[in-house]
Amino acid sequence: MSLIAFINKNTFEIKDELDEYIYCDYEIRNIIAVLNKKGYKTKFSCAGHNEVGLMWPLHRENIDKLEEYLKDAENDETLHFIKKEGDYFYHKDEKTATYVYIYFEDDYKFEVLPSEFTYEIVDNKSYLIKKINYYLEDNHKTRKTDEKIYSELEQSHQDLLNWSNDLPII
Q1: Is the domain of 35 the same as that of 74?
Q2: pLDDT tens by residue, 21-51
Q3: Rounded to a whole number, what is the largest CA-CA distance in the chain?
Q4: Same domain, 67 and 131
Q5: Would you tell me which of 87, 98, 99, 126 could form a disulfide with 104, CB atoms 3.0–4.6 Å apart?
């Protein structure tokens, strides 16, 4: 399902997808184009985003996990207990990291990877991913500067571009 739709300016016909186009974030458009031109078909991707204060959706957990959650929340300001209700408790947590990733339409068995990216096989398809933390430490006390996060994102994009340029055509 698309997050956006396309509406024809003349007929007002609505299309959820444009079959001849690949969806990708602007920041990695050149990378996705190079990969597809070389035969490495991509399914979806994400450039990673610096999302300040963005929260995950409300989570419902079994009440037997509440004590552990509250203990973790004492040392982690990104964890937010909402309420206890019956056999469950609810929490809403801040995003603490972003991910740069590319999910391919096939398993390409990449032997060389871009710097700090991991390679997984998901549903028999190649998946490259890199986590970029927003915080300097695991308990999320000190957030990196926006400049530092953007620098890490830009370096990840450059590493992906260099890697994609070095791949052979298949």
Answers
A1: no
A2: 888 999 999 999 999 999 999 999 999 999 8
A3: 58
A4: no
A5: 126
